[in-house]
Design brief:
Blueprint lengths: L8 H15 L6 E2 L2 H8 L3 H14 L2 E4 L3 E4 L10 E7 H7 L4 H10 L4 E7 L4 H14 L4 E6 L3 H10 L3 E4 L11 E4 L1 H14 L4 E7 L4 H16 L7 E6 L3 H9 L9 E7 H14 L8 E6 L11 E5 L3 H16 L8 E4 L1 E5 L17 E3 L3
Parallel strand pairs: 4-5, 4-6, 6-7, 7-8, 8-14, 9-10, 9-11, 11-12, 12-13
Antiparallel strand pairs: 1-3, 2-3, 13-15, 15-16
Length: 374
């Protein structure tokens, strides 16, 4: 018979709260020390210590050095003092995945809260996140997390910590205990694929970053469903996962984008991938009618700057997105389940004006044409 799974920090914290209520302890009353609590709940001292740190973050207890643990308020609503934005630095640098408008919107929903960027490393990611969680739990300042393009490991560790957090992007399928704000990834895939079919493309190249997340899978499913409905043979679809390096992207795609009778439709997850596709298309010397049609899912540019390629935009502003994140995080900090728990933001297609004359490096504002989503 398999052993029962060990209780999580969140479970132990709730058991402590239940014990405080059962004893009818009030504000200022002392509570058991770590060893006594571990013996009572039959868990390790390290687990109890993390659970007590979590309750101190919530304002339920106070831990006074050399004095002990005391009851603060069972129904405390400790305001957040700091929000850790957890992201990979290369995603922020090369793709601009965190717009200023989002920061302003979140700051408006969380007035007075300090925003701090924490860059996940490429290696030893779990150690880094565990250390960050430990630092937050030991701090006397109530803090929460915003996770951007986070892996399943990061989401699981933060969810298990019990600290308030929200995912900006798609929640990993095996993670259940984190609220999220995300774009409709299936709709993104459908809209971009439909546009390429309408442009009479006969071959299709779908490009992802080198590390695929759950949202990529959903977008791919949406795009493939449209292509299948249009009667596109699987042999005419090429999928590549490429590093965040424009030269490497261009070199890889030059080997794929061979001129022929059918026009290529290139669906890019990021603008960096699209720039590499532009360079590769130029090197392949396509005739004008056969120039590949390039579309982009993720863009990072101001509303006053026209996109170089037809792309996706959300039906809300970056500031509204940030406000949604802030409201979800504030609710989680109060121990309230955000409503909705998983917010799906609809998207629409944004056409690049006069694509034939747009240059890769152009940043001049142009009049935009928007197509509402179905």
């Amino acid at each position: 018979m398999a052993n029962a799974a060990a209780p999580t920090i969140v479970d132990v914290a709730q058991q402590i709260v239940d014990d405080i209520r059962r004893r009818k302890l009030r504000r200022g009353d002392p509570y058991l020390n770590t060893a006594e609590t571990a013996q009572l709940l039959r868990v390790s001292g390290s687990t109890v210590n993390r659970a007590l740190q979590l309750l101190a973050q919530r304002g339920v207890i106070q831990r006074r050095q050399r004095q002990g643990t005391f009851i603060a308020a069972l129904d405390a609503e400790a305001p957040l003092r700091r929000v850790h934005v957890v992201i990979r630095q290369d995603h922020l640098r090369t793709e601009g995945l965190w717009a200023d408008g989002v920061l302003l919107g979140m700051q408006g929903a969380l007035p007075g809260v300090e925003l701090q960027f924490n860059f996940r490393p490429l290696v030893d990611e779990a150690d880094y996140v565990n250390q960050l969680i430990g630092d937050v739990l030991r701090s006397r300042q109530a803090a929460g997390f915003v996770l951007i393009r986070s892996t399943v490991m990061v989401q699981r560790l933060v969810a298990a910590s019990g600290l308030p957090a929200v995912v900006s992007g798609t929640l990993q399928p095996s993670v259940r205990d984190l609220p999220s704000v995300e774009r409709d990834q299936a709709q993104i895939g459908r809209l971009l694929a439909e546009h390429l079919v309408e442009r009479r493309c006969g071959r299709f190249l779908i490009l992802f970053r080198d590390r695929i997340t759950a949202g990529d899978h959903v977008m791919l499913d949406g795009a493939l469903a449209v292509l299948a409905q249009a009667g596109v043979d699987l042999a005419r679809i090429v999928i590549r996962c490429l590093p965040s390096d424009e030269e490497a992207i261009a070199a890889a795609l030059t080997e794929v984008l061979e001129p022929g009778h059918d026009r290529w439709g290139v669906l890019c997850r990021s603008e960096l991938l699209a720039r590499g596709a532009d360079v590769a298309a130029a090197a392949c010397k396509f005739t004008k009618p056969r120039t590949p049609a390039i579309v982009v899912a993720d863009v990072a540019r101001g509303s006053d700057v026209a996109p170089t390629h037809t792309c996706i935009e959300t039906t809300i502003t970056p500031a509204e997105w940030g406000a949604e994140l802030g409201r979800s995080l504030a609710a989680a900090a109060r121990g309230v389940r955000p409503d909705p728990y998983r917010k799906i933001i609809h998207v629409r297609l944004l056409h690049a004006s006069d694509r034939s004359s747009a240059s890769i490096s152009s940043r001049r504002p142009r009049r935009l044409k928007r197509e509402n989503s179905p």
